[in-house]
Amino acid sequence: MTPAVNAAKKARIAYTLHAYTHDPAAPSYGTEASEKLGIDAARVFKTLVAQIDTHRFAVAVIPVCSMLSLKRLAAAANAKKARMADGPDVERISGYVLGGVSPLGQKKRLDTFIDAGAREFPTIFVSAGRRGLELELSPDDLQTLSSAVFAPLTQTQ
User: Fold this and answer.
1) Residue 20 has pLDDT above 90, yes or no
2) Do 126 and 134 contact (CB within 8 A), yes or no?
3) pLDDT of 77
4) How many CB atoms lie within 10 A of CB 109?
5) Do residues 58 and 111 make contact, with C-beta atoms less than 8 angstroms apart?
6) Which residue among 89, 102, 120, 157 is buried most deeply as judged by most CB within 10 Å?
7) CA angle 153, 155, 157 (to 5 degrees)
8) Nearest 5°: phi and psi at 39?
9) How does DSSP classify residue 112?
10) Quick one: DSSP state of residue 156?
11) Buried-exposed string 71-106: b where 16+ CB fall within 10 A, e elsewhere
């Protein structure tokens, strides 16, 4: 299993794994998960890594149907500005490949922020650490396992 699934198992939280056949030509991993699993895109969350100021990295977990507001992420992280991290940095820091980055079980624990809208749902879906594998869990369990902070992070809120 992946480090994300192992983290959920070790914490003994309630979760469900959902697998689907990943299409390498899919333009959006999150939208693909939503469509193939028949789940409302508002409940499927993507994991994004951003560089905060110049020295730190942070994780933003937002719905796949939304755009990250870098200004809101910076504010949540008490930073002046944020920018999206480069792909090689994301893979090196997280230990996951792009499109399969999970907010759980990362190589290096980063400050993590979950979009406040996640609390509207009893469960949400996040990458389980591999393309084609989603982890369904409660937003509160995700917050606890990732030591995250809920904050408004999207441009549409």
Assistant:
1) yes
2) yes
3) 96
4) 10
5) yes
6) 102
7) 75
8) -115, 140
9) E
10) T
11) ebbbbbbebeebeebeeeebbebbbbeebbbbbbbb
Q: Which two tokens stand for residue 19?
A: 């697998």
For residue 33, which of 124, 154, 145, 120 has the smallest C-alpha distance?
124
**Amino acid identity of 49?**
V
Model confidence over 89-141: pLDDT tens digits?
999 999 999 989 999 999 989 999 999 999 999 999 999 999 999 999 999 99
Which residues touch 99 (CB under 8 Å, ≥6 apart)? 29, 127, 131
Alpha carbon distance 81, 62 (integer Å):
18
Strands (E) in the chain, as ranges, are 16-19, 45-52, 56-63, 82-84, 111-115, 124-130, 133-137, 149-151
Tokens of 35: 């469509």
Q: Give the SS3 label for residue 154.
A: strand
What's the number of CA atoms in the CB half-sphere (13 Å) around residue 35? 11
DSSP conformational letter for 143:
H
